[in-house]
Specification:
Length: 190
């Protein structure tokens, strides 16, 4: 993985996306910190860096399409699609709705999804893998060959084991501990 880009994105995540306070995660677990990757992914340089680094993981996993549960996967999927275009990589993107759309084509999967392709489920931050596995179930039901899971930030709270049980190779750009350590080393000013 490109070390300069990785260091720069880590610094951005620590500065823009890391918060310490009591809250409840989407997994239902209580936490004393939160990594809101969207705050970094909606900054042009953050989106660029995340797209490049996650695309590296997707390419290494040998996948032909990526996507995950809305809304967590949306900005990282979009960033990867832009990186794929810049790099001439033929990879498709899509997202999974929490429930089937009630109008239009009434789909649960939206975007450039194709059945049969080697697929990775992705998300910005993964804790237990619960919502990603929900997306995997929808992908597999629609005919995807889901082989991998990819996170921008892995919280280290059960996803490794959950994805292993589901037969998925799991990779990530950062651990939450790396983001926490970077923030501790460079506390936010003001």
């Amino acid at each position: 993985m490109r070390s300069e880009e990785r260091r720069e994105l880590l610094a951005m995540l620590a500065r823009e996306s890391y918060f310490e306070r009591q809250l409840t995660l989407s997994s239902g677990r209580a936490s004393d910190y939160y990594v809101d990757c969207k705050r970094t992914l909606y900054i042009p340089r953050g989106a660029y860096l995340a797209g490049e680094l996650v695309l590296e993981l997707a390419t290494a996993a040998g996948v032909e399409q990526i996507g995950g549960m809305a809304a967590g996967a949306l900005p990282v999927t979009d960033a990867v699609m832009a990186a794929a275009h810049r790099g001439g990589v033929g990879i498709r993107g899509f997202f999974v709705r929490k429930e089937t759309k009630q109008h239009g084509l009434q789909q649960i999967i939206e975007g450039a999804f194709k059945p049969g392709l080697k697929t990775a489920v992705i998300d910005d931050t993964i804790t237990t893998g619960g919502s990603s596995l929900q997306a995997v179930a929808a992908m597999r039901e629609a005919g995807a060959n889901v082989i991998a899971a990819i996170a921008l930030v892995e919280r280290g709270e059960g996803a490794v084991e959950a994805f292993a049980r589901a037969g998925l190779k799991y990779s990530w750009v950062f651990t939450a501990e790396e983001v926490r350590a970077e923030r501790a080393a460079h506390p936010a000013s003001g």
